[in-house]
């Protein structure tokens, strides 16, 4: 038996029992380390493990105190936060993958840590003198600034990966190549001001994002992920092709508290992918379903991969408003995957899991509904206008409280410390990614490069909005490959969103558009990390799995065009629009969006009731796409095409039944 066969057999056994034994957990960890930079960490034991764990807990504690107790000046708080994070990255992440030495920190990493402390602590201690001197920083400060930037970029390479580093390096080289800026000016702007390395991304990360990451770590300790998977099983497990539908629902629910497409794919996929294969789905399809659904978790309110907090800051829209407006697009995204999964199950004649093997929905919900309380409390507090920092902390305390309800989920001192440590570990990659993304933002601000990019794309589009949207989509997918959610959004918001606002799209719609297309880079070949993680669990061909995932996530490529052309999907209306008109527009866009999406899904699947001929499939896709345009005329044509062709398919299906 091959290694792949053994891995699949082990995973299937684990899925059937609902538990992961030690060997299975090791295999999943190997997959995580291969496709997720955050999982490739050093191994510590005994006193060294205690020391590193204590530093991680101290970092989490510092983040909480900085937000709820101390009122430090920004040029103290931001470099202190980023410097501490960079030091921890050098302790936690080895210089290259596959390092197996235990309790070993090489000399060059010790040098890196000392260099980090020297540059960032010097800034914190002398920030007032630096502010007073302005651009006239000393030679020593230039050297320390260079060191501070380089260590942050190396930390980013280790914790996040090369793609973001390449993009940031290209922007910095552009600043030097332009010849208009001296070394002193570039270092001053990128390291010592709040428009570069410690700019808006680090500000938002150190205040909002890190606290919600900590909240997610505590929420995980309550056992909510298992509850979500069991809940999804009880809802859809017995239907046709049930396990795939379970994957869609559970990934959407788990995505609310997860900030990683790869992490979500491995966590829920360890259970759902083997069950999908056992039901009859092909491995490439099973891995793709989980990857597409898990990637969608990043657009699922209320957390949205922590990017929602950045969006609130960068788009100038209240956080509560963002999560309310993101609900309908997210529903369309997951509906699209659900439809494709259902059609594939019908095409293959697949059945679900016997109902007697599944949990009862009402019994399960009655037993564990209280696990949802922290999430509900979080959303309620934010919508009520409470600060995000305080809302996150109160919700975190609620996690501790609900864990006490049952003995098996009760949080002990050990699990409490585990959650603090987990929150710190998850924050490290986000922190250094936000810092390096701040370098990109700083170069754009300093050089005016953003305006040049906007001008060129507007020129290429010839003033046509749909062409500008297409070019922006391509830019987002290319720049977003291999970049984590938060840094991904920062790059898109800085470089691409202004293109669309220049073309007349409302600010929030433009930011949501670039956010969606940055996220789908995780399943779009050639750098489709979530799809590759899914293929590793399924034992399938990686590229075919990525292509299937892209096909399944077709809604992600359609929905942004819908709300870009018709912002009513995001509940954005022209001034003076009456309430009745708003309601009518929302109803119209919901109906046309879902019908259009159904038509496109049927056309791509080439199955509805029975096999769809090529010409009908093409017309179904055309009809569905026509409903993207907000015009009533195009909606009617699309509706006639989709409904008419579906009726033809139904007639043919009935003829086949009577003939048989």
TrEMBL record:
This is TRAP transporter permease. NCBIfam families: TRAP_fused (TIGR02123). It comes from the Bacteria. Residues 147-572 form the TRAP C4-dicarboxylate transport system permease DctM subunit domain. The keyword Manganese does not apply. It comes from Yanshouia hominis. The keyword Acetylation does not apply. It holds the Pfam family DctM. InterPro entries: DctM, TRAP_DctM-Dct_fused. The chain crosses the membrane at residues 50-70, 76-95, 107-125, 131-152, 159-177, 197-219, 322-343, 364-383, 427-454, 466-492, 513-532, 552-573, 585-609, 615-648. Keywords: Membrane, Transmembrane, Transmembrane helix. PANTHER family: BLL3936 PROTEIN (PTHR43849:SF2).
């Amino acid at each position: 038996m091959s290694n792949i066969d053994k891995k699949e057999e082990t995973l299937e056994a684990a899925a059937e029992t609902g538990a992961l034994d030690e060997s299975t957990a090791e295999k999943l960890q190997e997959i995580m380390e291969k496709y997720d930079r955050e999982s490739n960490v050093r191994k510590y034991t005994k006193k060294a493990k205690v020391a590193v764990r204590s530093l991680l807990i101290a970092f989490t504690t510092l983040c909480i105190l900085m937000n709820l107790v101390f009122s430090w000046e920004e040029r103290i708080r931001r470099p202190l936060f980023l410097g501490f994070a960079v030091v921890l990255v050098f302790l936690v992440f080895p210089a290259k993958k596959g390092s197996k030495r235990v309790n070993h920190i090489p000399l060059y990493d010790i040098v890196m840590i000392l260099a980090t402390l020297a540059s960032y602590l010097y800034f914190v201690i002398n920030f007032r003198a630096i502010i007073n001197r302005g651009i006239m920083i000393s030679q020593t400060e230039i050297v320390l600034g260079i060191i501070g930037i380089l260590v942050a970029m190396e930390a980013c390479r280790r914790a996040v990966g090369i793609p973001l580093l390449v993009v940031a390096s290209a922007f910095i080289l552009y600043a030097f190549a332009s010849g208009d800026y001296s070394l002193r000016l570039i270092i001053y702007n990128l390291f010592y001001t709040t428009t570069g390395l410690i700019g808006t991304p680090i500000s938002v990360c150190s205040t909002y994002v890190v606290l919600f990451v900590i909240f997610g770590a505590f929420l995980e300790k309550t056992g909510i992920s298992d509850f979500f998977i069991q809940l999804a099983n009880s809802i859809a497990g017995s239907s046709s092709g049930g396990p795939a539908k379970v994957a869609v629902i559970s990934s959407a629910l788990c995505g609310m508290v997860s900030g990683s497409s790869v992490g979500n794919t491995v966590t829920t996929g360890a259970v759902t992918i083997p069950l999908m294969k056992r039901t009859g789905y092909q491995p490439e399809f099973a891995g793709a379903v989980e990857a597409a659904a898990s990637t969608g978790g990043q657009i699922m309110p209320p957390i949205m991969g922590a990017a929602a907090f950045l969006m609130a800051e960068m788009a100038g829209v209240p956080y509560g408003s963002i999560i309310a407006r993101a609900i309908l697009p997210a529903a369309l995204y997951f509906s699209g995957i659900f439809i494709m999964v259902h059609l594939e199950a019908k095409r293959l004649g697949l059945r679900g899991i016997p109902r007697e093997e599944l949990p009862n929905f009402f019994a399960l919900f009655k037993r564990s509904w209280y696990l949802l309380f922290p999430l509900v409390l979080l959303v309620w507090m934010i919508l009520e206008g409470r600060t995000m920092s305080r809302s996150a902390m109160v919700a975190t305390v609620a996690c501790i409280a609900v864990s006490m309800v049952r003995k098996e989920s009760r949080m002990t001192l050990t699990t409490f410390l585990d959650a603090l440590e987990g929150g710190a570990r998850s924050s490290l990659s986000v922190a250094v990614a936000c810092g390096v993304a701040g370098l990109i933002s700083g170069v754009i601000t300093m050089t005016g490069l953003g305006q040049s990019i906007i001008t060129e794309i507007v020129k290429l589009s010839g003033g046509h909005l749909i062409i500008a949207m297409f070019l922006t989509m391509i830019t987002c997918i290319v720049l977003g490959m291999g970049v984590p959610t938060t840094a991904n959004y920062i790059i898109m918001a800085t470089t691409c969103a202004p293109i669309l606002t220049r073309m007349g799209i409302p600010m929030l719609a433009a930011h949501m558009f670039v956010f969606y297309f940055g996220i789908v880079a995780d399943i779009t070949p050639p750098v489709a990390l979530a799809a590759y993680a899914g293929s590793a669990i399924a034992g399938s061909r990686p590229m075919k799995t990525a292509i299937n995932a892209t096909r399944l996530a077709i809604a992600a490529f359609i929905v942004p065009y819908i709300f870009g052309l018709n912002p009513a999907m995001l509940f954005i209306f022209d001034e003076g629009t009456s309430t009745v008109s708003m309601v009518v527009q929302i109803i119209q866009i919901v109906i046309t969006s879902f019908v259009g999406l159904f038509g496109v899904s049927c056309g791509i699947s080439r199955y509805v009731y029975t096999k769809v001929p090529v010409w009908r499939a093409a017309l179904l896709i055309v009809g569905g796409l026509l409903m993207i345009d907000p015009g009533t005329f195009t909606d009617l044509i699309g509706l006639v095409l989709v409904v008419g062709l579906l009726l033809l398919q139904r007639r043919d299906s009935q003829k086949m039944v009577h003939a048989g």
